[in-house]
Amino acid sequence: MNSSNQAIRLQKFIAQAGVASRRKAEELIAQGRVSLNGKKVTEMGIHVVPGDEVRVNGKLIGSEAQKVYYLLNKPKGIVSTAKDEKNRTNVTDFVPDHQRVFPVGRLDRETTGALILTNDGEFANFMTHPRYDMPKKYRVSVDGKLTRAISSQLESGVMIDGVEYKGIEFEMVTYDLKKNRSQFTVTLHEGKNRQIRKMFAHFKIPVLKLHRYAIGTLELEDMKIGMYRELRPFEVKKLLLTAKGEI
């Protein structure tokens, strides 16, 4: 096969190598941090063919790196980053370090539960891009009684500080009179920063505990906090099909 038929854009090559998302790869190129066959590249539209040497920050990369996918049950107090400027423990400290991985999306420090880590930039893009609408399920505990009036507004969606938040779905709502605490499950269809906490804070309802137990078709099941496992190939495929709306 002619190598020209195998040419791909440089930013896609970087994303497939698991170095960064395609958008971030474009930023790296614009910043002059990428070289192709020993020459710095700062323009978009450059193509890579088999045999080309690509370096990012001086480090040789390759699109044939083995793709890895981990599911982590994130503990409380851990930051969802690959690196932390304050040297705090982060989610990548819980999985093997033989491959450079990064979290797919984020959970805030106080939230526990399901988080995927991978070196597959294309996969991460499908999991997090707004147009793919990957559903996520959380177990929530809040202070006080969740009234039907408030849950109805949250199901319809709310506008907070000029930001529109899509509606969330409620299941298994219970109220503990003795503790004055409500517990329930919610399904979220977007991933704005601290979304659930902000939506309940809008109605002056403090969130006491927040735990994500499912991402699309993937559930933590009996995994303990701080534990991880590798995703099986069929699970990765099913997540991609779910994100694309094909199942």
H/E series: EHHEEEEEEEEHEHEEEEHEEEH
Radius of gyration: 21 Å
The end-to-end span amounts to 34 Å
Percent of residues in beta strands: 25-35%
Structural class of the secondary elements?
alpha+beta
* Overall geometric form: elongated
Number of beta strands: 17
**Uncertain regions spanning at least 5 consecutive residues:** none
How can the largest sheet be summarized? 9 strands, mixed
Instruction: Give the rounded overall mean pLDDT.
Output: 89
Q: How many distinct helices?
A: 6
Helix content: 10-25%
Task: Give an account of the 3D structure.
With 247 residues, the chain is an alpha+beta fold. The chain has helices spanning 10-16, 22-30, 121-128, 148-156, 195-201, 233-243; strands at residues 8-9, 34-36, 39-41, 47-48, 54-56, 59-61, 69-74, 102-103, 112-118, 136-143, 158-160, 163-165, 169-176, 181-188, 207-215, 218-219, 228-230. Strands 7, 8, 9, 10, 13, 14, 15, 16 and 17 form a 9-stranded mixed β-sheet that branches. The model has no long low-confidence stretch (mean pLDDT 89).
Note the topology.
Blueprint: E1 8-9, H1 10-16, H2 22-30, E2 34-36, E3 39-41, E4 47-48, E5 54-56, E6 59-61, E7 69-74, E8 102-103, E9 112-118, H3 121-128, E10 136-143, H4 148-156, E11 158-160, E12 163-165, E13 169-176, E14 181-188, H5 195-201, E15 207-215, E16 218-219, E17 228-230, H6 233-243
Parallel strand pairs: 9-15
Antiparallel strand pairs: 1-4, 2-3, 2-5, 5-6, 7-9, 7-17, 8-9, 10-14, 10-15, 11-12, 13-14, 15-16
Helix pairs in contact: 1-2
Features:
nine-stranded mixed β-sheet; four-stranded antiparallel β-sheet; alpha+beta; 247 residues
